[in-house]
């Protein structure tokens, strides 16, 4: 079998991880005893995993997280009024599937940004897309967009300009 044209075709089809795995399978003796279905399944799994990893990396890059935080790092011993059960249930992403908004508020320094970053990171890991935007940035962008569309009077009052 001519393997070089096969590898070139895999690259042309943008199946680069599969092409690399195919080349590795050919050179490693441990794969020789596997059947066709098993070897092909391994190739498909390799390609799928590589694509999922690229998607995750791209979603994380576009999320513009302020700093990496996870829900597992949230300190529930500090008296902030955080319920472990509520935070962990928010981490499942049910509120996203139900199209429910989430507003995190509290005094300065209690960990709102860390909690929001952790929830966003968990959502991204679960396959959702998102972006970290602070409230004042969102308000400013809405105001500037309203001014450019000529509706500054009503929108500026609503956005507290």
What labels would you give this structure?
161 residues, mainly alpha, 3 domains
Layout of strands and helices, then pairs:
Blueprint: H1 3-12, H2 16-27, H3 36-63, H4 84-90, H5 94-97, H6 112-125, H7 135-148, H8 152-158
Helix pairs in contact: 1-2, 2-3, 3-6, 7-8
Quick gist of this model?
This protein has 161 residues and is an all-alpha fold.
Tell me about this structure:
This protein has 161 residues and is mainly alpha-helical. It has three domains: 61 residues, no CATH class; 60 residues, no CATH class; 30 residues. Helices cover 60% and strands 0% of the residues. Helix 2 packs across helix 3. The chain is elongated, with a radius of gyration of 24 Å. The protein starts with a helix and ends with a helix. The C terminus is likely disordered.
